[in-house]
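Hello forum,

I keep getting stuck at the same step: I have a sequence, I want structure tokens, and every attempt I make locally crashes halfway through. Rather than fight my setup again tonight, could one of you with a working pipeline run this one for me? It's a single chain of 226 residues.
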Amino acid sequence: MFDKIISRIVPRAVAFTYSNFRILSKLHGQFKSMQRWECIDADDRPIPWYSYPAIEYIKQLDLSQKTIFEYGSGNSTRFWAERCRNLVSVEDDRAWYDRLAAGLPANTEYRLIESRQDYVKFICEYPKDFDVVVIDGSHRYDCAVEAVGKLRDDGFIILDNSDWHEKTSKYLRDADLIEVDMCGFGPINGYTWTTSFFFRRNVKLSPGHECQPVHGIGSLHHRECD
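Reply #2:
Ran it on my machine without issues. Output:
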């Protein structure tokens, strides 16, 4: 009702700007995430510190049978644990580790490794390769080098803040991975950034919904399949 009143008394450009602000601030939950300095959505559910377009894309996928390795932890760890079969997450910050360690679900192995070399190489301790590797912690270039060797032939890598890590992005492209960049706003921050997906050429992605793509947050609802 308030939106309809606004549209009648202010110019269209102002009304549309207000609508955009409302979608980002309220519907995505960005204002709440800024207040709490925590990566959460509008319903207080944990989300990664990725760009919103990247988060929306991940939600389109069925990852329930996937094994995921995560360099760097946070609310992303809780987010991934809800969506995959098994998750391994490694952290090198003791204070951050102590904050997160309690209450993680049984499908999550969470490790504190403060040594740079051991942190980077930890992924190699697992005999099987991973379906998804997330690089969102320390030493990202070195982690990318190890990640490529432990990624399944039909898997993908996520590199957050890829616009700040051009060398790492180039390494992953040169490893014959297909780069898809998703730039936009995200939780907490007052600026845009890029979260990139690097896909194996044999990647296999299962849709998480019967009719896709699902409507994004703040989108108009129209469907050919309705």
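Residues 12-27 form the longest helix (16 residues). If your local run keeps crashing, start a new thread with the error log.
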